[in-house]
Protein: Ribosome maturation factor RimM
Amino acid sequence: MSDTPKMICIGTFAGAHGVRGEAKLRSFTEVPADAAGYGPVSTEDGRSFTLKLVREAKPGLLIVRSPEIATREEAQGLAGTKLFVPRDRLPPPDDEEFYYEDLVGLAAITPDGAPFGTVKAVVNYGAGDLLELTGVPGEKGVLLIPFTKDAVPEIDFDTGKVTIDPPVYEEVESEDDETAP
Structure:
C-alpha cells in the first residue's frame, strides 16, 4: 500500500479578481465556502496555497486571497489549476455516500462475476458522470460507462468491486446508408 495520501480535488482557480492578487475559485465542495477551510491546498505540480475566503461571488464561485499570490497576473496565470487536499482532511461521507476518488482502483465485474476491468476515473464531459474503465476484455484503451444505477447497480467497498451492467447499443441504419435507386 502506498504511503502517499489519496488526494481529492476540491476546486479550481478560475482567474483573477480585482488588481491586488485576489483569485476566483470554483468550488467543488458540497458547501462551497468549505473549499477555503481544509488547510493548505496543493496543485498537481506540487505548489501549495493557503486560501483565505474573501466572499462568495455567486453560487460555487469564491473570491479568495493567498499569501502565495501577490499580483493580478499571478492569479490570472493560475486559471484552470486544480486544487487538492488529502482525503483524510475531508469529512467522512454519510451512509450510502462516497467520494468519487474512492472508486478509483476498484475491480469492475459483470453481474455474473466475470472480470470487466478496473475503474481508472470518474469523469463528466457535460452530459453526466461516467466511469472510465481500463483493462476491459476486448477493448483497447478506456471504456466509458454511464454512472447510473442501471449501468452500475452495485458498489462494494468491502470487496473492492463495482458491478458493471453495460448498456447495449444497437446499430441503427441511417438514411445516408441507403443506396439511391
User: Anything to note?
Assistant: The chain has two domains: 7-88, 100-163. The radius of gyration is 21 Å.
